[in-house]
Amino acid sequence: MYKILDTEDEVSRYAAQRLLATIAARPEAVLGLATGGTMEPVYARLVGRLQGGAVDASRLTTFNLDEYIGLAPTHPQSYRHYMERHLFARLGLPRENVHLPDGLAEDSEAACRAYSEAIRALGGLDLQLLGIGSNGHIGFNEPHTRFSCRTHVTPLSAQTRRDNGRFFSDPGEVPTHAITLGIRDILEAREIVLVATGPSKARIMAELYHSPVDEALPASALKQHPNVTILLDREAAALIP
Ligand code: F6R
After folding, report:
1. Is the CB of 116 under 6 A from ligand 1?
2. pLDDT of 90-101, one tens digit each?
3. Ramachandran sector of residue 154 (left: φ over 0; alpha: ψ -120 to 50; beta: rest)
4. Cα dihedral sign for 18, 230, 184, 145?
5. Is 227 an annotated catalytic residue?
6. Does residue 133's CB lie within 6 angstroms of at least one atom of ligand 1?
7. For the chain, how many structural domains are there in total?
8. ipTM surpasses cut 0.85
């Protein structure tokens, strides 16, 4: 379940390889994708390999984990914009095949229901890629979110808004709410790869290692899943025995 490699670069290469293997095995694979600093080198590696012709990605379908409420897709910090910049535009993926929750939906409850249903209608996620928040969140499932939740609107914790302030020119602009895929949707993926790199993840990775399955630590839900890889560099694994 735990795989520890020396450097962030090795972790990113390994994660990209897992994605490529999934696409090679099933060119019409359905992938669950994440954003954030951890994924930038993963997508850079993946794009490099795909542009080199490693496998054909043109028939992929993707669903992102989350999106801020209230940011337009063109906002530089929206997750739609992030995905365009790091992956979609660089691979020329057909836009009808890529999905993010709609942070501007008028009826967000209906949009949430439709998002989970769209994934299930395609037979579920072949592989879900995850990062982890310093408070243990996966997607934007913050501590004490019910593990039975599907896609839903969530307030962002003060910790998450502080952590993500680094991406905004004015940290006060970090939205207060987001839409996130639920833990239940995440656990239905056939395979899950969680990636954590750097010293800022060492404390939460040690907590996760020792934690029972507990809604206070959302990532601990993964301990119930039969096919999870937790992929760490030495710095993120520093406090794991
Ligand atoms: C992003 C997401 C979040 C991040 C987590 C870690 O789509 O779902 O759970 O994976 O906040 O973010 P970074 O990689 O920026 O430390």
Report:
1. no
2. 998 999 999 999
3. beta
4. negative
5. no
6. yes
7. 1
8. yes
Nearest CA to ligand 1 atom 12: 36
| 63 Cα: distance to centroid of ligand 1 (angstroms) | 15
State the DSSP code for 88: I
Query: What does the alpha-carbon distance between residue 161 and residue 172 come to, in Å, rounded to a whole number?
Result: 9
In a domain, 237, yes or no: no
- Token code pair at residue 221: 């839900």
Task: Sort residue 144 into left (φ over 0), alpha (ψ -120 to 50) or beta.
Answer: left
- The whole-model pTM stands at 0.98
Q: Strands of 152-155's sheet, edge to edge? A: 66-68, 177-180, 152-155
Selecting among 8, 126, 142, 163, the annotated active-site residue is: 142
In a domain, 109, yes or no: yes
* 221 vs 186: CA distance, rounded Å: 9
| Separation of alpha carbons 195 and 99, rounded Å | 21
Q: Is 156 in the pocket of ligand 1 (CB under 6 A)?
A: no
Residue 25 lies in a domain: yes
The yes-or-no answer on residue 141 being catalytic is: no
pLDDT score, position 54: 85
Q: Which residue range is the domain that position 35 belongs to?
A: 2-195+207-232
CATH number at residue 72: 3.40.50.1360
Answer yes or no: is 217 within a domain: yes
Mean pLDDT, 10 residues at a time, the chain of 241 residues: 97 98 97 98 97 92 98 96 97 94 97 98 98 98 98 97 95 96 98 98 98 98 98 98 92
H or E element in which residue 233 lies:
strand 228-233
